[in-house]
Amino acid sequence: MTEQKLQEKYLQLQLLDAQMKNFQQEMTLMEQKKSELLRMSEGLDGLKTLKKGADIRAPMGAGVYVESKLDNVSEILLNVGANVMVRKPINDAIKLVKDQIEQSDALLTNLAINIQALGMQAEKIQDEMQDLIAKQK
Questions:
Q1: Three-point CA angle 119, 37, 97, nearest 5°
Q2: Residue 69 lies in a domain
Q3: How many domains does the chain have?
Q4: pLDDT value at position 60?
């Protein structure tokens, strides 16, 4: 009977470990997204200081840039999905990005709390397993 309980506890421990790893992966992805949002926020703030006709280097991706001149410094184009772009005032875009950063922070906090709770459950199960092993002797 004790052997079966040990196996059950071990399975519970493995499930908790898998959940913790999933949450940790989600945290890593969310931290990357937040980092991108912070860079975007800085870029939008910098864009507000430029004047029409200013020379800029626009990123094309993978470290490739194109030199260009700014034609419109009061609005940006925002991809809303399915390759559909809408014009947004730059201040609205900045607010949107800051809201997304706040949401990212809230999610990161929630993930950290969940990971901590799972860790405490795992410790409790390990203690129970040690008790069961001690009773077998």
A1: 110
A2: no
A3: 1
A4: 87
Contacts 24+ apart (CB under 8 A), 83-91: 90/44, 90/47, 90/48, 91/48
Strand stretches in the chain, DSSP E: 55-61, 64-69, 75-81, 84-89
**Could you list the residue range(s) of the whole structural domain that residue 129 is in?**
2-48+75-136
Q: Where residue 33 sits, what CATH number does that domain have?
A: 1.10.287.370
Residue written as token pair 């001149």 = 69
In a domain, 27, yes or no: yes
Inside any domain, residue 92: yes
Give the closest residue to 56 by CA, choosing from 70, 46, 40. Answer: 70
Contacts of 65 (CB under 8 A, 6+ apart): 57, 58, 59
Taking the chain (137 residues) in runs of 10, the rounded mean pLDDT of each run is: 87 96 97 95 90 88 90 88 92 94 97 97 95 83
Q: Are 78 and 85 in contact (CB under 8 A)?
A: yes
Tokens of 106: 């809230």
CB 86 within 8 A of CB 76: no
